[in-house]
Amino acid sequence: MRGPLAALFLRDLQLAVRVGGGAMIGVVFFLSVVTIVPFGVGPDMNLLARIGPAILWIGALLATLLGLDRLFQADADDGSLDLIVNAPVPLALVVAVKAAAHWLATGLPLVIAAPLLGLFLNVPPAAMGVVALTLAVGTPALTLIGTVGAALSVSLRRGGLLMAILVLPLTIPVLIFGVAATQAAIVGPMSFAEPFALLAALTLVSAVVGPVAAAAALRFGLD
Questions:
Q1: What is the DSSP code (8-state) at residue 122?
Q2: Whether pLDDT at 220 is above 90
Q3: Most exposed among 66, 146, 153, 206, judged by the fewest C-beta atoms under 10 Å?
Q4: Which of 98, 94, 77, 97 is nearest to 86 (CA)?
C-alpha cells in the first residue's frame, strides 16, 4: 500500500511544482495581496501593525484555496479518478495523501514567505516566528477543508465558484483562531496558548473528518 500512495504523493507534488502547476501562483497571489494592502490603508504604520497578522492570514487563506479546485478535476479529466476510487487502497487515505502533497507545494511556501512579507505590513520582527507558527499549524486545516469542496465540485460545471461558496464559511473558525493567536502573542492581553490550542484542534479534527467527507463526496459524485 505504501508504494502506490508514495507514487501518488510524488506525482501530485511534481505536477504542483512544475511550471504552471499552481504552487508558485499561490505565492505570487499571496505577495500581491500583502503588497496591495498598504496602498489601500495608507501610511499609518500603527494601523498596519495591528491589522498585519489578519491580512497575512486572509492572504494565506485565499492563496491556499486558489488551486484546490483542480485537486481532483485533473484526475477526472484524464479518467484516472475512476481508477483511484476503485483501487484497493482506502479512498480517504488517498485523499489525505493528495491533500498533503497540495499543502507541501502550496501551503509550506506561504508559511516560509509570511515572515518576509510581514515586513510590508510593519509586523514586529519578534512576532514573525509566531505568524509562521500559526500558519504552519492552521494552513493544513484550510487545505483539508478545501478538499471536501473540491470533491463536491468535481462533477459540476463551474465547480470552482461552488467550491468557494461551500468552503469559505467553513474556514472562518480557522481564520478567527489563527488571527487571535497571532494577536495575543503580539499585543495581548489574551493568552497565546488558548487560541493556538483551538487552532491545532481544528487542524486535527480536519485531518480526521476532511478526508472521510471528501472520499464520500467523490463516491457520491461518480455514482
A1: T
A2: no
A3: 66
A4: 94
Question: Whole-model pTM?
Answer: 0.87
Calculate mean pLDDT across residues 21-36: 77
Q: What is the pLDDT of residue 127?
A: 77
Distance CA(101)–CA(106), nearest Å, equals 8
Tell me the HSE value of 55 on the side-chain side, using a 13 A CA sphere: 26
- Is residue 210 within 8 A of residue 144, CB to CB? The reply is yes
Query: Which residues are CB-neighbours of 198 under 8 A, at least 6 positions away?
Result: 177
**Calpha distance 55→135 (Å, rounded):** 12
In 3D, which of 93, 103, 102, 130 has the Cα closest to residue 115? 130
Instruction: Work out the end-to-end distance of the chain between its first and last CA atoms, rounded to an integer number of angstroms.
Output: 25
Give 105's DSSP letter.
I
Q: At what angle do helices 159-186 and 193-222 cross, to 10 degrees?
A: 170
